[in-house]
Structure formats: C-alpha cells, structure tokens
Amino acid sequence: SNDGVLVLGATNAPWHLDAAFRRPGRFDRILFVPPPDAAARADVLRLHLRCKPQEDPDCDAIARKTDGFSGADLKAVVDMAIEAKLREAMKSGVPVPLRTKDLASAVAGLKPTTREWFATARNYALYANQGGTYDEILKYLKL
User: Which domains does the chain have, with CATH numbers?
Assistant: First the structure.
C-alpha cells in the first residue's frame, strides 16, 4: 500500500525535467528552496562547529557576511577555517581553538556557489516561465 507515502525529488536544474515527469499525479509540484537566511546560516554554522575546538565564535556576525551562501558553502567556511588552524598548529606546535576571525578569514576566500545558479535560474524564470513555474524565483530575486 502507498497510503501515507510522499515521494520528494530534488534537483538544481528543474528546467531540465521532462514535462511528462512533471504531469499531474507524478512530480507535479515544483518548490523553490532559497538559500538560508541570516538566522538559518548562523544555525548551520553552529551545527558544523559542534564538537570542534572553538572559542565561542560569533556565528551571527559571520552569518551576516555570508549572504547567498548555501549550507554546503557554510560547511566549506568551517572546513577552511579548521584547515588553516591545523596548519598554524603544525607550525607553532600549539593548537589554538577556532575564533570568529578564523571564520571571517575563510569567508573572505569564498564566494557563494549559488550566484551562478541564480544567473541561470533568472534567465529561465524571465524567458521560459509560461506556466508560472518559476514565479517564486522571480519573487525571491525581486524581478
């Protein structure tokens, strides 16, 4: 029995889905999931910093500097900061916990990976949106 079963699919290229795949009764709804807002980004950072040696970094401040970053981008921020701290500890012989400045340095070396996606999504939303499938993207982009 399939009662109570909900099947979800995810893609970063909904414009490549065949129309037959999206017809009623199949995958007939497309939901736009935007990048996390500042509060969610701070929570994602806290999640990735859990169980890591740290001196209570200001995740809210870092979140404000990461507009447009995805969850994966935020994980990369933490990973880069940890790698830099490990290199520093190997040189000095003294391990030092992560601080806000370490995360800020990592952020400075990254750009949100969502930028390229939004450039593509914008074009589809503006020029191939006959059925209103991409209206949520237009609303998010304020177009």
Answer: 14-31+114-141 (no CATH), 38-108 (1.10.8.60)
